[in-house]
Amino acid sequence: MIDTDAQLAYGIFWCAYAVAFVVLFYMMKKLFRFLPLYGLRTLLLAALVALLLTPVESPELANWWIPAWLYGGYEQILGDADAAGKAWFNLGLAGLVMVLVWILDLVRYRLVSR
C-alpha cells in the first residue's frame, strides 16, 4: 500500500512536469517560429508533444504513470528489453496519433488559408 507522502510526491512530480512541459513547449514554439514552413514547425512541435507526454503504467504500482521516454530509457540502460519495449511501443503509438493530428492540422491550415 502506498502512503500519503508517496501520493503527494507523485502529484507534485506530475504538476512540476506539466509546468516544465508548458514552459518548454512555448520556448520551442518561439524557436521554431524562424522555420519557413508551417508543416515543419508543427511537425516538430507534435514530435515534442508525443515524445514528452506519452505515459506508461508502472509495473510496480497500479494506476501510477511514468513518462515513457524516462521509463524506456532507464529500462534500456538496465538491459530489460521487454520493459523498455512496452515504453517504446507506447511512444510509437503516440507518434502515430500525433502524425494523424498533424495531417488533420495541415488540412485545416490549407482550407483556412484559401
Describe, in plain words, how this protein is organized in 3D.
With 114 residues, the protein is mostly helical. 78% of the residues lie in helices and 5% in strands. It has 4 helices and 2 strands, in the order H-H-E-E-H-H. It has helices at 4-32, 38-53, 68-78, 81-113; strands at residues 55-57, 65-67. The chain has a two-stranded antiparallel sheet with strand order 1-2. It starts with a helix and ends with a helix.
Short descriptors:
single chain, 114 residues, mainly alpha, 4 helices, 2 strands, elongated
Tell me the overall shape. Answer: elongated
Mean pLDDT: 92
Radius of gyration: 17 Å
- The topology string of helices and strands comes to HHEEHH
Structural class: mainly alpha
Strand order of the largest sheet: 1-2
Q: What is the strand tally?
A: 2
Give the amount of beta strand, in percent: 5-15%
Share in helix? over 70%
Poorly predicted regions are: none
Give the biggest beta sheet. 2 strands, antiparallel
Number of helices: 4
Cα end-to-end separation: 58 Å
